[in-house]
Design brief:
The protein is an alpha+beta fold. Helix content is 17%, strand content 26%.
C-alpha cells in the first residue's frame, strides 16, 4: 500500500466513522500522524495470524500477516476509543 493509498483510506475511515481498521499485510514501514483523526476507532489491526501454516525449522506454525513497523506515531494516543 502506498502512502497516498493509506492517507486516502484514513480519510475514508474518518469520514465514514469506521470503528475497525485492518492494515495487516500491507508492508507498511510507518503510520502517518493522520492516524490521530480516527478518534472513533475501537480496533486497529496491524498484524494477525493467517489460516495457513508455514514450516519454521522443524515446527509447523501459523503464518503471520504483519507489517514492518518499528515505531508507532504519538498521535495514536489520541484514539481514546481504541480497545484492541
Amino acid at each position: 500500500m502506498t502512502q497516498d493509498e493509506l492517507l486516502h483510506l484514513i480519510d475514508q475511515a474518518a469520514a465514514e466513522g469506521w470503528t475497525e481498521l485492518d492494515l495487516a499485510g500491507h508492508h507498511l514501514t510507518e503510520l502517518p500522524p493522520e492516524m490521530g483523526q480516527l478518534t472513533q476507532l475501537e480496533v486497529l489491526i496491524l498484524g494477525k495470524l493467517a489460516d495457513e501454516y508455514e514450516w519454521v525449522g522443524n515446527q509447523r506454525l501459523p503464518k503471520v500477516i504483519g507489517n514492518q513497523l518499528t515505531t508507532l506515531p504519538a498521535e495514536l494516543g489520541q484514539l481514546r476509543n481504541l480497545r484492541r
